[in-house]
Structure formats: C-alpha cells, structure tokens
Amino acid sequence: MNELLVVNNLTKTFKRSRKQKRIDKSDTREIIAVNDLSFKTYRGEIYGLLGPNGAGKTTTLRMISTLIKPDSGDAIVNGSSIIKNPNEVRSKIGFLTHELKLEDFFTPNYLFDYFGNLQGVPKEKLKDRKDFLFKKFGVEEFKEVKVADLSTGMKQKVSLVISIVHDPEIIIFDEPTNGLDVITAKTVTDFLIELKDLGKTIILSTHIFSLVEKLCDRVGIIIDGKMIADDTLENLTKDMSLEDYFFELYEEYGEEELWEIS
User: How far is CA 167 from the centre of its chain?
Assistant: First the structure.
C-alpha cells in the first residue's frame, strides 16, 4: 500500500491557566494534549480519527497541518516533514475545521480567488475549479453575497470549497458535519466518497460512530491523547458495534466521566 501520511510519535503539551486549574480541579501546570501518537494513512482511503471531545484529535490535525508545532515527533506528508518542510506540506493538504472563520465583509467569489492565488493555482485551473465546486455545493447563486449574510450551512460549504481550492492530495476534515442540516451533511459525506474514488486520502476527525461506520476504511481511536487502537473496522470490532467496542476501550483506558454521544 502507498503510504501518504506517516505520523511518528507526536507529542504536544499546553500550560493550564489558573482558571483552567480551577475548572479541572488540578494543580498540574501542564496538560498533555497528544501523547506519543503514531499512525499511517494510505492513498485512496478514508481514515477516521475517533475520540471524545478533548481527546487530542484537533490538536493532532493542527500539528499535521503545520498550524502548531509539536513538542516532539514528526509527520511526513507525501515525503515532506511538517518540521523541516512546512510550506511543502501546506501545498499538499487541505484542512477544514468547523472553527474556520471567514471574513464577513468578503464574498465567496473573492475569497476563492484570493486563496487560490495564495496557493499558486493557475488562472484557468482556478476558474474551472471554482465552476465545479460552486455548482457542486450550490454556492454559485450566492457567490457575490457577503459572508456575513450567508446561512450557517452555506458558510460551511464555502469553507469547504476554499479548503480544497488547490486540489490537495490529503484532505483533513475536523468534525465536518457539525452544525449542518441533514441535506447539507449528506452532500458533504457523498463528496468525501467521491474524493476517495478520485484517489484522494481523507482524514476524518469525529466523535460520531455512524459517520465512521459509513465512511471509513480504517479508524484510529484516541483517548486522553493516546492512540488506543488502529486498524480496519472489521478487525477492530469483530461482531460488535463500533459504539460497544469504543466503550469497552473507554472503560479500560478512559477517565471516569464519559462524553455525550451525538
């Protein structure tokens, strides 16, 4: 199999503020968000990163996307190190997070061109890419509407098309269906399958079991910043549901307070 992403022993810690210490009821100064995490993804697969809120999923994806630096470890994105070659990595990945904020004053049309030029997409290719993605996600009729006047679902669609403006090899989605209505969510999930069929590698971070079961070829389960399990769904769950398997692991490795299922 063709390895497109190799994550090696990523670790990231954050300092707790005084307020956070009170909230967490802890005197520990540092919290380990990601703890010696390793996994691989292959060309043409959807890899699910599954875990509760606060497990370290988003921190992991931000390190892979070069948005934050790890304390130790590295990740190799199709031959490029996130430590040594961050600019090369950025040209090879698209990163969509539900926390992405678009500037309210600008239109989808302007933002798409701006980020396309930033990524060095040739003018003709940029036009073709825009025509395809705007029609695919129903952005076309809203392309000259300011972001401030768009619905939440439309903002998410615009964020999605901007994140893949440069047709990246690896596409990272952090909770991609959060806040979307069922129709828009289905459009997004159907598109993920299309991207896979085109040979793209997709990393899908979520805490929704059904989404992983529907879309993912393999899954890594993160609890408290550690990779607890990493394999195909079939090999991991055997005759169990993914939800039952997860909670077996959580009882063994997780903290006392369970998380809310979506």
Answer: 16
Domain count across the chain:
1
Predicted confidence (pLDDT) at residue 256 exceeds the cutoff of 80: no
Residue 190, both tokens: 């159907």
Positive/negative CA dihedral, 121, 192, 183, 242: negative
Q: For residues 114 and 108, what is the distance between their CA atoms, to the nearest angstrom?
A: 10
Beta bridge partners of 221: 50, 229
Is 91 exposed, middle or buried, given 0-12, 13-18 or 19+ CB atoms closer than 10 A? middle
CATH code for position 142: 3.40.50.300
- Distance, CA of 204 to CA of 53 (rounded, Å): 14
Residue 259 lies in a domain: no
141-180 pLDDT per residue, tens: 999 999 999 988 888 889 889 999 999 999 999 887 776 7
Domain range for 151: 3-253
Q: Report whether 121 contacts 164 (CB < 8 A).
A: no
Distance (Å, whole) CA 221 – CA 55: 9
